[in-house]
């Protein structure tokens, strides 16, 4: 019997009617001859409501208590979905993250999953139960409740799929799959049938909010096929899997992504000596700030400029860290800017085709868009631009790489 | 250092402002030189909101999933209260029922506490922490989340006070303490300074909703002094403790209680043979229906009438049980009535004073109120009357036993 893991996001369980619809879909999957584990997020905006409640109490809630608070959102969803499936007459059981044995590191707000104990899950599946698991949450070894950060339910789903050696992890969302660009910006964007983990990872990291990057990493690590599909219809969505030959030849560029959550910090006149970068980025890492792009300019008179990007929420903390180490590393000055965006092209086929980056830069130049930073990898090229220019850049690039299609696009948009 | 356990009900933590007020009160208690454990209920009407949500899904939610759902209410409260205390600058930690080691039987919706593990609590107290515990919830040995039923937070508080051998368990409510009668009905009712566990137990069972009966039982069993007091002021409330000599002499009757949640089932023409009552009440017990009063009428022609009362919510189930065993016990007929109330007088001094019951019946007769059932114990006399007559009965009895006082009465009423 195949094991299918299904994940439904907050908008799929936003109210009683939607929960009942999810219940029918889950039962359908089981009746088709599968063992089914379902991961759900908190209902609609309920996580935001809880955050607002905390803000009424304090502007700096303790991360531990924030996890205690937010973990309730998913617990409400699993109970309600289990009730809905029970009402349809099928054996069902809801389990919280801690109950299911999702062991995380002892970090609050963005804990990483260390292990998933598949024993209880497998046993309950073998007893004929549909299992509903709270996404986004886990527990440390000593029973502290942790959360995995935004998008954590995707990670829960793939981690459980990996632990159970599931045949597929279906991520249900309010779009049909992964598109060549955000259809709200590029109306002619079309759905990709398949995409590699690496491409998806780049797209996910780059702001195409269909799948959380950590879930894709996990999927790649454990070889879990991830099927991104719509909760509103039964159309096949986009399958995220290892590269197969035919895929590589399909497209030079799979998609164009953009991310408005970009802030840049620049350090001027940094002495060109060993250990400077280490000191700076270690200090940032200690505050758990994820640094995205890092650019070190060519040396002039033994002094460098270093610029890097972080998500906007981390900007204040990052600036404080940089201020604190500025003296020690002997930097001449500091600047920052929160009004930026990153526009990227992603494609596994890029590596064997020269000139892709140049074509992107040319398009930007033709549009009169200034590029502030550039970063490349084997399968992507990213440019930091002014936030105001991002939309125009995406449209122009999508067009110049001939990604336009006529696939019907879900009107509810691209982001999940 | 004294250990003080404080319990704040849903109305005391109904919004951010109230939570902040509770935080200040808790900190005050710690700063006065005590170790403090705080038990909180779900915010305001949030439990009812969760129940409504479940009702949108199904009219018969599984009890297990209902517990999963409802346990979130208290988890929200503890996180927010911990944030508020942290903001005031004091070390604090919130813990769910399962985390604190509140072990319950494997029953959903009204589980009984089997044990409380004081180890973690004592350790965190000794580390200087204020501890906030979710009331109303626990876990079975195999980690299933359970709830203790309405009023369960009182029980949590007293159970934790017992496990920690606390000096006092303070139950904060929106009234000043325990009154001789419901001030909404009897404006001249006055606050009792002290009351015995047994009296409180009778009052609690009889519908004076200040303290949950199970919490009083636990308090009596472990000798935990329970201080019922107002969360709106610092006045001493009512101390519930073992009888002391002076108390017994104070009053013949301590209070008049009423309970509108009464339904009666009558069985006619039941053969007068051994085992009939056992069969009937065992069948009811198996469905976990609490039977309150039981009256068996004098035998006529080897046949009896049996009448008993249950809470209204249990009436349908109870009637079904009785229908099922009616044949087996050879009963002639069955009747039921959900439109009743119970009016009771309670007093430890009653036992040594004859004529108390007679005086109550006389008052009822003078008011023209028909008594449908009577039950007595050493410290109480209860009468079942028509629901419409209950208020008038309470007023007349309170007056005839000369319980009227001039103590200021909180305008927010008697019930918590």
TrEMBL record, chains A, B:
NCBIfam families: asp_kin_monofn, asp_kinases, PRK06635.1-2, PRK06635.1-4. GO terms for molecular function: aspartate kinase activity; ATP binding. It holds the Pfam family ACT_9. Catalyzes the phosphorylation of the beta-carboxyl group of aspartic acid with ATP to yield 4-phospho-L-aspartate, which is involved in the branched biosynthetic pathway leading to the biosynthesis of amino acids threonine, isoleucine and methionine. Pathway: Amino-acid biosynthesis; L-lysine biosynthesis via DAP pathway; (S)-tetrahydrodipicolinate from L-aspartate: step 1/4; Amino-acid biosynthesis; L-methionine biosynthesis via de novo pathway; L-homoserine from L-aspartate: step 1/3; Amino-acid biosynthesis; L-threonine biosynthesis; L-threonine from L-aspartate: step 1/5. The keyword Amino-acid biosynthesis applies. Belongs to the aspartokinase family. This is Aspartokinase. Its EC number is 2.7.2.4. GO terms for biological process: diaminopimelate biosynthetic process; homoserine biosynthetic process; lysine biosynthetic process via diaminopimelate; threonine biosynthetic process. The keyword Amino-acid biosynthesis applies. Residues 265-343, 345-414 form the ACT domain. It catalyses: L-aspartate + ATP = 4-phospho-L-aspartate + ADP. Keywords: Amino-acid biosynthesis, ATP-binding, Diaminopimelate biosynthesis, Kinase, Lysine biosynthesis, Nucleotide-binding, Transferase. It comes from the Bacteria. Substrate binds at residues 47, 74. InterPro entries: AceGlu_kinase-like_sf (IPR036393), ACT-like_dom_sf (IPR045865), ACT_Aspartokinase (IPR054352), ACT_dom (IPR002912), AKii-LysC-BS (IPR041740), Asp/Glu/Uridylate_kinase (IPR001048), Asp_kin_monofn (IPR005260), Asp_kinase (IPR001341). CDD domains: AAK_AKii-LysC-BS, ACT_AK-LysC-DapG-like_2, ACT_AKii-LysC-BS-like_1. It comes from Heliobacterium mobile (Heliobacillus mobilis). It is an enzyme of class 2 (transferase).
